[in-house]
């Protein structure tokens, strides 16, 4: 059995130093790189792409609302055309940088509030997916399973990678517990690792209440801005490998080949 470990990286901002990025890049298979709208800048993108090349890590754009003040975690209502431009601009920014270094983007993963809103809205998810397809139909759309994002991606005949989170808890509807709730995060390394192993074995999201939601699982995310991110990723990787799982860059998974 194979799987993929991913992190959101290049998120240098007033909220996050990204100081763990070099260590995380040594451990993961895939990086979702901030495109300068919620975090990061051109120089950070270049450094992050270079790190990915050094460690044979596949990369994708991590587009967000244009809102550095709130780290892209504030909901903003935009028109279809505004969403299209928002996504397209960020993909193009990172693509130009990566292509100049000889590395192509493999996927797109919306960030923060944009991601949460897309999980709930088929119309928004379809617009995001259409924009990805317009740019490059071979790009993988990284989504939360059993949400409107997965439905829209499949309806658009995009390559869809279903993602679960090691360091977050889930509501009974399969959505992430809001960060303003005290039980939103799983910061204990052992707990986060066991949570992932349980979900992979069950092929299901295991909600905070104990509810089980069967789903497809292709990739595992640990947020790069978490205090224990390096420890969690390292522990998960070691335990997955001990269990016999093969870790690969996202675009190298059999499901996409």
Instruction: Sketch the topology as an H/E string, one letter per element.
Output: EEHEHEHEHHEHEHEEEHE
CATH topology: TIM Barrel
Query: How many domain modules?
Result: 1
Rough shape?
A: globular
Structural class given helices, strands, pairing?
alpha/beta
Biggest beta sheet summary: 7 strands, parallel, barrel
| CATH class category label | Alpha Beta
Average pLDDT works out at 95
Low-confidence stretches: none
Number of helices: 8
User: What CATH architecture would you give?
Assistant: Alpha-Beta Barrel
Spatial ordering of strands, largest sheet:
2-3-4-5-6-7-10
How much of the residues is beta strand, in percent? 15-25%
Please identify which CATH superfamily we are dealing with: Glycoside hydrolase/deacetylase
Euclidean distance between termini CA atoms: 15 Å
Topology, number of strands: 11
Cα gyration radius (Å)? 17 Å
The portion of residues assigned to helices is 25-40%
Oligomeric assembly: single chain
């Amino acid at each position: 059995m194979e799987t993929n470990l991913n992190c959101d990286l290049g998120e240098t901002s007033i909220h996050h130093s990204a100081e763990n990025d070099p260590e995380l890049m040594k451990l993961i298979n895939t990086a979702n790189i901030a495109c300068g709208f919620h975090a990061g800048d051109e120089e950070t993108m270049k450094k992050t792409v270079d790190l990915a090349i050094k460690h044979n890590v596949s990369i994708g754009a991590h587009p967000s609302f244009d809102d550095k003040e709130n780290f892209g975690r504030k909901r903003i209502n935009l028109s279809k055309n505004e969403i299209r431009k928002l996504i397209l601009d960020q993909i193009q920014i990172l693509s130009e940088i990566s292509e100049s270094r000889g590395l192509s983007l493999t996927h797109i993963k919306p960030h923060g509030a944009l991601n949460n809103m897309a999980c709930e809205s088929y119309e928004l998810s379809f617009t995001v997916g259409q924009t990805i397809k317009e740019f490059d139909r071979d790009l993988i759309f990284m989504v939360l399973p059993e949400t409107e994002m997965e439905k829209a991606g499949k309806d658009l005949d995009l390559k869809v990678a279903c993602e679960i989170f090691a360091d977050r808890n889930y509501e009974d509807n399969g959505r992430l517990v809001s960060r303003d709730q005290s039980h939103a995060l799983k910061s204990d390394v052992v707990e986060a690792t066991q949570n992932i192993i349980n979900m992979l074995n069950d092929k299901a999201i295991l909600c905070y209440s104990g509810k089980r939601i069967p789903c497809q699982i292709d990739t595992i995310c640990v947020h790069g801005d978490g205090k224990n991110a390096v420890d969690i990723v390292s522990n998960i990787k070691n335990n997955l490998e001990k269990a016999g799982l093969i870790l690969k860059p996202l675009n190298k998974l059999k499901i996409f080949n």
